[in-house]
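yo

u said u wanted the structure for the complex thing, so here. seqs first:
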Amino acid sequence: MLEFKWWQKALFYQIYPRSFADGNGDGIGDFCGMLEKLDYLADLGIDAIWLSPHFPSPNWDWGYDISDYTGVAPEYGTLDDFRTFLHEAHARSIRVILDLVLNHTSDEHAWFVESRSSRDNPKSDWYVWVDTPPNNWQSFFDGDAWTYVPERDQYYYHFFMKQQPDLNWHNPQVKQAMWAAVRFWLELGVDGFRLDAIGTIYEDPRQTPHTVPMTLAELRHATDLAQSPQEKQKVAEYWNEIFKHQTGQPGLHELMKELRTVLNEYDGERVLVGEDDNPAFMGNGWDELNLVFNFPLMRIEAPLTSSWVCDNQATRLAALEKISPQAWPCNTLGNHDSSRVYTRYADGVHDAERARLSLALMLTLKGTPFLYYGEEIGMRDYLIADPAQLRDTMATWYHDALVNDLDVDPLEAARHAAQMTRDKNRTPMQWANLPNGGFSPAGTQTWLPVNPNYAQGINVTEQQHDPNAMLNFYRRMIHMRRATPALIEGDYQPVHECGSEYLAFIRATAEQRVLVALNFSEKQQVLDFSQLRYTTADLLFSSAGHAHRQENLKEIHLGSFEIYIVELH
Ligand code: GLC
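structre next:
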């Protein structure tokens, strides 16, 4: 039996540094703030942090446009602050993984500044240059994927904003330079990396045009307007087609293997998590990435249903099993690019119950769970009505394209932009019922507005004193998981057929068997588990708040949206 690795057992928590904790009161999160909150995180019970980019950046994409891969953004602190943070996290047994953006740099990175300066400089081939745009490829963020540079009288390629030029990964010098940055952080002791947008690293060498009869803005708009199943299917097909030749191209597996060998120079403990859902990136289970996200679980129009989760698990676990018996799942329901869990899976009636169910899924399904900052207090999306206040440039671009190119009414354009912007799920963490939610001192302009619902109990300090608050629910469930090895290491066996209003499954190791039953409806359920042939069942957790008790497996009563977990003997 193979030993479980730390990253298989860990509960990850994603920090978006700009929005987590403002230590120096300038309206922007920083390392000093994060350092102060490490005890909070330790107490919550998380084991590892995924830190969204903390590198110097002109912030066209808020850190995902990196201008120096071995530095720290001055607004977040210094390299010494980073070292202290890492040291103090480790002292609390919290691991830290960084965000590694391989596909592109910032256009202000010294590599690009040199590359764009002439056709014959030493880095002229570090990016993807062409004499004339060879096709109609689009950038996912701002329309045309080819941008002109007069100094070279050529165009460069960018899958994201034009301020994010794509690196030419066919050039071995690019690899060497990037692997040097990777080694820099590994030597400092970081525990691994979350790999940004790996699917976009290579492009179709034949440069085949796409066949979608729309521009990016038109497609986004059509998606916003799609109502009928036919319309929705059509836009889904178009989304598939439009970037088909710019993503998932040959060469990625070799590259990921190479990166794996760089990590293996250190010890067998550093982890690679891919921002991709293709299990093929796990190679033979150990020679590429350690984890890729189960994004298909998130791809549901709210709310989550038990049959959706049940089907997802069947498909996902089978796909992983095909790769290797060791391929390990990785689940998440929210991140800095998507609507917040509390909002996304809500039904307008049982939102809090559904948010609790979402956590229960993360903590009881097989695989490494990733949570997103703020979900533990039930933070919601915050819509920014005024387009001038948007900070997410992809949304600004979309808004302007709607108004200027597609003649959309400005109010409607503002509404669409407010919905699509990622600003809504990146607002500052709400620490207290104080001005600015206690994120920054009163009177400070925070980089994004604080959701005013901090004053309605959506804040850490008040929830800490309320046993019924979301925060204490998170803490209780997380600590229950920590004390229940089967929920961490056990295999997953569905108990009843998919399709009912509840989900029931067993997580089992050789030593422990746990039955999880999750009621996805407001209706009470009376369930018979006597076919499982266990004689006793000890209650480990119930969201209905029952005290410790022995259960009768022939007749389990699940309350409305109850989360119910028993140990079987
Ligand atoms: C990834 C990141 C996203 C970023 C993009 C470009 O998808 O998660 O936030 O904008 O890559 O780097």
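Residues 61, 64, 101, 160, 196-197, 275, 336-337 surround alpha-D-glucopyranose (CB under 6 Å). The chain has a mean pLDDT of 96.
cya
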